[in-house]
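Q: Given only this backbone (261 positions), what sequence would you predict?
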């Protein structure tokens, strides 16, 4: 009969049984991944349903039950993931802004690599802004309505716009005719701010003088930015950025700057 030395790796029957029970109780990796995938799919469906509901009814008309039914899940699953109505609203807004930010980043990257003149870059930037607002009109309008009560609700939109403007400043800094304009960065940023204000004002003010059609709206906003920047019209590079006294040109009327298709 062989002696079993102290400290041997041989386990007692009780320890082996306990180890087996622990192994059996641990879910397989593929089961955990499947559960995680289903949970993520449910959360995405709820957020997508929330965005669709906001666009149709705004914040005031938000029905948590309707959102859950639209997503094909239960209202209990909705509250389990987001806590309460306010938590769900914030999550939906974050999802909406993430989509807008991704669209903006993708299109700005395309714009700044494909266009060879500052006029084309500015025109493409404005076209992008108008398209993004049109695509996410329901989200912007819902946030704007909420901001009338809680101004902080507009802060994510402001940050998004400021980031896009900084990207535009960076893209235009490679053009000598732009950097030759005195205080060009400040003038550009204020011009973009004025264009954004006019664009958002038109969302809730039916009497706003901004054209409704896409092409006409882009044309007006483009000219507003270019005119305030003092960028010479195409074909007159080196002229018009300053007045006869060498000072930055005053805000021009729309007839002085041609639009680039």
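A: Predicted residues:
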């Amino acid at each position: 009969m062989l002696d079993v030395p102290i400290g041997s790796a041989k386990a007692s029957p009780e320890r082996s049984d306990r180890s087996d029970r622990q192994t059996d109780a641990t879910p397989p990796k593929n089961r955990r991944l499947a559960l995680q995938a289903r949970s993520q799919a449910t959360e995405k469906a709820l957020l997508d349903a929330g965005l669709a509901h906001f666009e149709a009814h705004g914040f005031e008309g938000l029905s948590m039950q309707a959102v859950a039914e639209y997503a094909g899940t239960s209202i209990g699953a909705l509250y389990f993931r987001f806590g309460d109505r306010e938590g769900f609203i914030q999550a939906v807004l974050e999802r909406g802004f993430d989509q807008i930010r991704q669209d903006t980043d993708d299109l700005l990257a395309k714009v700044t690599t494909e266009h060879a003149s500052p006029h084309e870059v500015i025109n493409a930037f404005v076209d992008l802004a108008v398209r993004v607002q049109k695509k996410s009109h329901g989200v912007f309008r819902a946030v704007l309505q909420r901001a009338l009560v809680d101004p902080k609700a507009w802060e994510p939109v402001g940050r998004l716009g400021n980031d896009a403007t900084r990207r535009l400043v960076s893209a235009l800094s490679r053009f000598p005719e732009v950097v030759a304009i005195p205080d060009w960065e400040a003038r550009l940023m204020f011009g973009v701010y004025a264009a954004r204000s006019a664009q958002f004002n038109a969302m809730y003010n039916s009497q706003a003088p901004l054209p409704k059609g896409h092409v006409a709206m882009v044309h007006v906003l483009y000219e507003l930015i270019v005119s305030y920047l003092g960028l010479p019209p195409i074909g007159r590079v080196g002229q018009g950025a300053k007045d006869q006294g060498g000072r930055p040109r005053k805000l021009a009327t729309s007839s002085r700057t041609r639009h680039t298709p």
